[in-house]
Sequence to fold (74 residues):
Amino acid sequence: MRINIKALPKEKLLHLFDVAARSKNEVLAGRVVNELADRNHISIEDQIRKLGQKASDEKNLASFQMASKLWEVV
Fold:
């Protein structure tokens, strides 16, 4: 299934990152991070950091682990 992530609002992108984290889909999570970074006009590293902090605050272990995996790649 193809998803046009450019057409999704920010809230849906954050939810899509959580879904990608739960399904351990690093490619989709990376695409979501890139899109969010472009929209917020920040670097990919800063976006991953923000997503990791958000996951930590919400005690969302799957999303935090995905942010950690993406951090290792960058």
Summary: Residues 26-40 form the longest helix (15 residues). The helical segments are 10-22, 26-40, 44-57, 61-73.
